[in-house]
Amino acid sequence: MFEYAPAPESRSVVDIKPSYGLFIDGTFVDPADGGSFKSINPSSEEVLAEIAEGGAQDVDRAVRAARKAYDKVWGPMPGRDRAKYLYRIARIIQERSRELAVLESLDNGKPIKESRDVDLPLVAAHFFYYAGWADKLPHAGFGANPQPLGVAAQVIPWNFPLLMLAWKIAPALAAGNTVVLKPAETTPLTALLFAEICQQAELPAGVVNIVTGAGETGRALVEHDGVDKVAFTGSTDVGRAIARAVAGSRKKLTLELGGKAANIVFDDAPVDQAVEGIVNGIFFNQGHVCCAGSRLLVQESVAEQVLDSLKRRMAQLRVGDPLDKNTDIGAINSAAQLARIRELTEAGAAEGAERWSPPCELPDRGFWFAPTIFTGVTQAHRIAREEIFGPVLSVLTFRTPAEAVEKANNTPYGLSAGIWTEKGSRILWMADRLRAGVVWANTFNKFDPTSPFGGYKESGYGREGGRHGLEAYLNV
Amino acid sequence: MTATATSARSDLSELGRSETALRTFLHGLPGVDQVGAEQRAAQLGTRSIKTTAKAQAIDLAIRMVDLTTLEGADTPGKVRALAAKALRPDPADPSCPHVGAVCVYPAMVPYVAEVLRGSKVHLASVATSFPSGQAPLEIKLADTRAAVEAGADEIDMVINRGAFLAGRYAEVYDEIVATKQACGDAHLKVILETGELATYDNVRRASWLAMLAGGDFIKTSTGKVPVAATLPVTLVMLEAVRDFRAATGRQVGVKPAGGIKTTKDAIKYLVMVNETVGPDWLDPDWFRFGASSLLNDLLMQRTKLTTGVYAGPDYFTLD
Questions:
Q1: Which chain B residues have a beta carbon less than 8 Å from that of A448?
Q2: Structural domain of A201
Q3: Which residue of B has its CA nearest to A271?
Q4: Residue A123 pLDDT class (50, 70, 90 cuts)
Q5: Complete domains list, chain B, with CATH
Q6: Residues A306, A356: one domain?
């Protein structure tokens, strides 16, 4: 046996303060009513820091600061000068990427190899990419002189805390808006470190404001009268509530919500790579991915072989300490999320689907869930319809390409889909018929700042990334 | 096992009898997606192997080295020195294991055999008009028999890439079968020369062809063309031996050769073996490195782990 010795990344590279205030108008301030909550490490339940809880007064203060910065500094500033700040932020993120990666893994529970090799490179790439647009907006295809919207209220989820921050802040700032951002209550730390990076980059005060808190803070933010634009990534339920709240107002809205993506494997697929794609599709980031390939649709004639290969591959997944460089699957982000995953998987078993997990030892403390697949799943099962948002794959079979399309589209969601086949013509035929914002062919979970991302149906509206992502922050 | 899982064992042994059956079978193997295979190989390359795991990996890698010299300038003196090093790679440390084998040209086999006699180090010889394989079959077989008679217990043959690329699979198959026969009891390693096969689909087909024809090992390269062993090529070959065992019950070894120079590289290969085919292949009987300069780097890293300091290159023998 070849046992890998522990290879932990050092946590001393990042300095976590015992408590954090709100980042408003360029400085950290205490909240008006002094409330706070704790952010914990989901792999150990250890408290990492005390975080200020922003109330309505704090949100108001932040929106005013953003408005002032928009009117006086950031709005009038030439695009090339805004670009300089964005490039500077991008470079500082690269320089401090190890620190940010460790902090992300501590606060979120994701394995260090993902925060180091996926999240952080993409975060920097997003800032670099949108920095390039800041002085070229007249060439973006939205008219000769497109104007920013004003103050953007941005509420982001806990699955990719810093990456979602980058997806929101980089295009908003490039287009000339100022922002008030609320990170998720379980993962505020990298956003607060990003606030320090804004100070380090000497970004003018008020251009970026970060107000921490939970649902009530977010509600106060999106409902604030001084906000011109609302951007939200998170659950479909909250997205609906936000859509209702801003309906009839001048606020422009983009939503990136849930998904229940089909990963479709045909009988002529490159099997070994398809299995990698299935694993990456559902177990990447513990399945806490809105575009996760959570429904495997496999052609019935190869289902047994593909499942055998998948199970063999799953037995190699290393679950454990997120800071160990060899960990493939880290901790579930919170007790609440773990309870939701348990509830849905228990429903799956109760409804008659067959459950399988590789033998794997889970740590005693913290929130953990073994990688799991359900076979014998039908379209009627809850685990085939509801977003689990965890390392749980539902396996369904199909007989013909038309049936694959029908099953893939038979969901209220429409964020992403994957197709595995060696036949190019079939890829194009399928892509034309799949109602999903992103269709991956012979790959999965590939992201790039130049590529627009967003959903059909209840997966939301608007696009983030690419030239298309600018539209959400311009008056067009 | 994938597309061939349902093929019964007897079916596979019949394949070589017909060009059409062989072609249909090889072209029916699942394809390899280049981007995906390279991505998987790169991912495995990011494993962090430290402390006790590293020490274990280094000793295993030393035991897997086929210490090789394949030069026109090889002399009895040169190969004797190499064989001595194979027996005791680190004269300063008796706990250092011996290598897997010494690999030389047929003409050098008798000199190596004298040194290795009575030891557990195998004696491999390249044969079949290495490295091009462009000679009449009779000459290739005579080459093989001569090497075995001179004392080689492992034969590294080259496949006929010209015939393979021209689609004459039966010709390649028959040559391997004939060479295997000429080997007698000696183990047969079949060199695919993957750098000349160019695509991963070809690597997978050639791997199956070599296994179907009776090869005991499949080996990537001669080391004589610009592209030698790579991680993705080795990954595709490992998947092939895994699937072949699932289909037939017979285990075949894998030998990447050429271009593997550092301990870091070697450890990446061992991680790949571990996570693709598992511990059954983590043994010198089933996995080898065809290399020359790799050994000294392994020895340097080994010394570093035991003493805590790096010794200069002058402390390791150059043979």
A1: none
A2: 11-257+456-475
A3: B30
A4: very high
A5: 9-303 (3.20.20.70)
A6: yes
Which among A290, A264, A259, A260 has a CA at the least distance from the CA of A277?
A: A264
Distances (CA, A) of A168 to A20, A255, B304: 22, 11, 48
HSE of B310, CA atoms in CB hemisphere, 13 A: 6
What are B82-89's contacts with CB under 8 Å, separation 24+? Answer: B82/B112, B82/B319, B83/B111, B83/B112, B83/B115, B83/B116, B83/B121, B84/B115, B84/B319, B85/B295, B85/B317, B85/B319, B86/B116, B86/B121, B87/B115, B87/B116, B87/B119, B87/B121, B89/B62, B89/B295, B89/B299
CATH code, A179? 3.40.605.10
State phi, psi for B87 to the nearest 5 degrees: -70, -40
Question: What's the pLDDT at B2?
Answer: 44
Residue of A1, A3, A4, A275 for testing the chain B interface, max B β-carbons within 10 Å = A4
CB atoms A270 and B56 under 8 Å: no
Residues 6+ apart with CB under 8 A from A310: A275, A278, A279, A373
- Residues A249 and A332 occupy one common structural domain: no
For residues A243 and A464, give the distance between their C-alpha atoms in angstroms, rounded to a whole number: 18
User: What residues have CB less than 8 Å from B265, skipping those under 6 apart?
Assistant: B294
Note whether A412 and A457 are within 8 A (CB): yes
Answer for the pair B147, B127: CB distance below 8 angstroms, yes or no: yes
Percent of chain A at pLDDT exceeding 70: 100
Q: With beta carbons less than 8 A apart as the criterion, state whether B215 and B189 touch.
A: yes
Q: pLDDT category, B9, cuts 50, 70, 90?
A: low
Could you tell me if A178 and A151 are in contact, meaning their C-beta atoms sit under 8 angstroms apart? Answer: yes
Token pair, residue B24, equals 């249909």
Considering only alpha carbons, which residue of chain A is nearest residue B49? A4
Size of chain B in residues: 319
Residue A4 lies in a domain: no
Q: Is B33's CB within 8 Å of A271's CB?
A: no
Helical H segments across B184-230, by residue range: 194-197, 200-212
User: Using an 8 Å Cβ cutoff, are B273 and B283 in contact?
Assistant: no
pLDDT of B78 > 70? The answer is: yes
**Å between B1 CA and nearest CA of chain A:** 7
pTM reported for the whole predicted model: 0.95
* Amino acid found at A392: V
Token pair of B104 as six digits: 């030389």
Q: Are residues A98 and A218 in the same domain?
A: yes
How far, in Å, CA of B132 to CA of B225, rounded?
A: 10
Q: What CA–CA distance (Å, rounded) separates A464 from B284?
A: 52
Asked if residue B289 lies in contact with residue B124, where contact means CB atoms within 8 angstroms, the answer is no
Residue B4 reports pLDDT greater than 80? no
